Fold this sequence. Notes:
The chain is 66% helix and 11% strand. The protein has 322 residues and is an alpha+beta fold.
Amino acid sequence: MILKALIIISIILQTMAIIAAIRLVRLTKFNSIWTLLIIGMTAMSVTRFEQYIQILIDGSSIHGPKELLMWLDAIASLCIAVGVLYAHKFFTYISHLNHQRRLTNKRIVAAVLRTEEKFRSRYSRELHDGMGPLLSSAKMSMSVLAKRAEAKEDRELIASTSIVIDEAIRSLREISNNLSPQVLNDFGLVRGISNFINKSPQLSTIDVQFDTNLRKERFDRDLEVVLYRVTCELINNSLKHSGCTRIEINLQHVYDRIYLTYKDNGCGFDTRAVSDCGMGMSNLTSRIHSLGGIIDITSQPNAGMAASIIVSTSSEPIVNEE
Length: 322
């Protein structure tokens, strides 16, 4: 009777260890270790089960060295099971700490981005409401002077000054719009990106293809701002560094995910050697990760550059399955 109980206890403990090891395969990177342990514990469980069946069939009892081996086997099973369960508890704790760390980093990055956008909006408003009226008043004054001027030289000077003021007003509007694009705030992501493309003088000589299945859909403001900033920075990096003649942007909304694909046919670069470009790859990555999304940038010298971005419109983060 005692022998039967020992075998049953061994089987139960080994089964518990197998279940814990299976969980550890998914929880840790040491898959081969836990796989070997699972195979070994499974073999031991099968052996114990066969012994139990044999005892039930024969109806005999075992004494002497074999009974001692059974006791040792039960003790070994207990030690292995407890060890694996403690390992599972330890790795679960480590995984929880890593999860909390990622959440904390995400909150910090999100707070930094919100603060940045807040100051951008503030400076944009101050430029628009402060400098804008002053320049407009100066333009009106120059118009009055132009009507009163009699000498040709005075009229030419006033005309050239008016041109400078017009250019200053145009530049002020561009700076204000880049700091806090009103189109993005009012009409959403697609209109914001389209407006940036259409109003960028540098893109006049470049073939830009922008395809999307979005129309007037609106999303969370943080999501729209981050995707807009990342897209604009990718375009700016292509203009500054790649010498490309064609840019392709594809923006798709499928169920609860947004897929953004960006490509150019420029000179490309070695992603292993280049750690900073324009706003910086790390900054682009941080922005996307602040949304719980993933970004993959691929490029080779003389082969252009491509960026693939996936973000979720829900609160669930995207898990990189690679």
